[in-house]
Design a protein that fits this description.
- By secondary structure, the chain is α+β, with helices and mostly antiparallel strands.
- It contains eleven helices and nine strands.
- The N and C termini lie far apart (44 Å).
- It binds 3-thiaglutaryl-CoA (TGC) and flavin-adenine dinucleotide (FAD).
Length: 419
């Protein structure tokens, strides 16, 4: 983590002034979040883990919660948060410090994602994409020059990146992509398009996966401003409204040869990046679940109907008791996954199981929490409906609910049910 608490406070203060001058709408509502920890999972964390977690939690309370509802309602990406996310170490937390990363372990990375998504899945998306899908492929597959040139700027937020794998006709089956490169001797000529790309309208660069003339998938760094490259925004989303999603369109884009990621070939390249991002989502979605549970618990103790708090009715207790049970089970699963990842032992199938389980848990918790709040549950007065709508994207991106189930199915049976 590149910040201590004092410099963190100072930078927040400076940012507050910046925000006022940009007339950012801040809510007067106080973020009262208290994290559930029914099985004392905190005891499994180191002091450093807790400091990192609490630093991000404080930032979310002070800087994200007061503005996020307004940005989501307006379907606007709060771009001014990028330098703060960088200062928190949210971009590439596990990338070594010599490349500008925070050099943290995977539990720390998970906790950062949990806390950011407790605020909003769309902001966690920005951090996931930058760290796991842009910095990670450059770190894992790039040349030393590429690492030194791009990673520090991505870690500091000077550059924002995006990841282009999905195409309009090739989502769950990215190996069928048609975006392609031709070797022109002095450069590659890139043609095709990508769809549903987080951050693309604001990104300075994109990691693009395309097939060469032999049909082998290759990774390229494509920069904003290259002739023939555009990134139009997709409008009208009811989900992840505070995250910008767009296309990537390539018409005869001349990509310099030194922009090819030299150390990877084949679809396992992009799939390897997804392991990193899916791991972060497994933790992140639990943050959204915790926020919904905490909100519903507090509301149910305060809301009086039939002369007593609704928390005193068995039906509401059933909902709350099942929520905390599922959250607790999922917390323990992701913590164990983090331990395995720290030892280099987490398999892609284990990551798939955890991503699927956390998102399923979070969606279920959000829907139950919304019911506990009755009519208030559908308003922006509370975060639940926003989380619920966000999670409808989280359950689809980074591999759908069904795809992750099939990955588990194939892992335990040895039989491929995809095709
Ligand atoms: P398959 O034949 O099974 O495997 C091909 C090669 O890839 C290897 N492999 C992996 N390697 C690393 N990590 C993984 N998770 C891997 N999965 C497979 C495999 O070992 C093999 O290697 P080799 O050496 O034998 O060649 O591949 P397939 O084409 O049949 O596809 C399998 C499938 C369906 C599981 C995969 O394509 C898949 O995961 N589909 C889902 C697509 C997806 O998740 N797209 C995400 C796009 S990015 C995104 O959504 C970002 S949202 C970010 C945000 O905003 O937060
Ligand atoms: P499809 O693949 O068409 O799937 C449709 C349905 O069919 C799903 O229910 C699926 O589970 C099911 N299905 C598919 N194949 C099978 C099968 N073999 N067996 C059984 N059922 C099957 N992509 C990127 O590359 N970069 C990004 O940054 C990015 N950001 C995103 C942001 C948002 C907000 C969204 C919504 C998506 C984003 N994506 C991104 C794309 C995302 O990864 C894809 O939407 C996802 O992989 C699913 O692809 P699809 O939408 O084409 O659905």
């Amino acid at each position: 983590m590149r910040t201590d608490l004092r410099s963190f406070e100072k930078s927040n203060c400076m940012q507050n002034q910046d925000q006022e001058s940009r007339n950012v709408q801040r809510s007067a509502k106080k973020d009262l979040f208290e994290a559930p920890d029914y099985f004392l999972v905190d005891e499994l964390l180191s002091e450093e883990h807790k400091l990192i977690r609490d630093t991000v939690r404080t930032w979310v309370k002070k800087e994200l919660s007061p503005i996020i509802e307004d940005f989501a309602q307006r379907a606007e990406f709060p771009k001014h948060l990028i330098p703060e996310l960088a200062r928190l170490g949210a971009f590439g937390p596990t990338i070594p410090p010599q490349y500008g990363g925070a050099g943290l372990d995977y539990i720390s990375y998970g906790l950062i994602m949990q806390e950011i998504e407790r605020g909003d899945s769309g902001i966690r998306s920005t951090a996931s994409v930058q760290g796991s899908l842009v910095m990670y492929p450059i770190y894992a597959y790039g040349s030393e020059d590429q690492k030194l040139n791009y990673l520090p700027k991505l870690a500091s937020g000077e550059l924002l990146g995006c990841f282009g794998l999905t195409e309009s006709d090739h989502g769950s089956d990215p190996a069928s992509m048609i975006t392609n490169i031709k070797d022109m001797g002095s450069h590659y000529l890139l043609n095709g398009s990508k769809m549903w790309i987080s951050n693309s309208p604001h990104a300075d660069m994109a990691i693009v996966w395309a097939k060469d003339e032999q049909g082998t998938v290759k990774g390229l760094i494509v920069e904003k401003g290259m002739e023939g490259f555009s990134a139009p925004e997709i409008h009208g989303k009811w989900s992840l409204r505070a995250s910008a999603t767009g296309e990537l369109v390539f018409h005869n884009v001349k990509v310099p040869k030194e922009n090819l990621l030299p150390n990877i070939s084949g679809i396992k390249g992009p799939l390897g990046c997804l392991n990193q991002a899916r791991y972060g989502i497994a933790w992140g979605a639990l943050g959204a679940a915790m926020d919904c549970y905490d909100t519903a618990l507090r509301y149910s103790k305060e809301r009086i109907q039939f002369g007593k708090p609704i928390a005193g009715f068995q039906l509401q207790q059933k909902k709350l008791a099942e929520m905390i049970t599922e959250i607790t089970k999922a917390q323990l699963l992701v913590w164990r996954l983090g331990e395995l990842k720290n030892k280099g032992l987490a398999s892609p199938a284990q990551i798939s199981m955890a991503k699927r389980n956390s998102v399923e848990t979070a969606i279920h918790v959000a829907r139950e929490a919304r019911q506990i709040l009755g009519g208030m549950g559908i308003t922006g007065e509370y975060p639940i409906m926003r989380h619920m709508m966000n999670l409808e994207s989280v359950v689809t991106y980074e591999g759908t609910h069904d795809i992750h189930l099939l990955i588990t199915g194939m892992d335990i049976t040895g039989l491929n049910a995809f095709q």
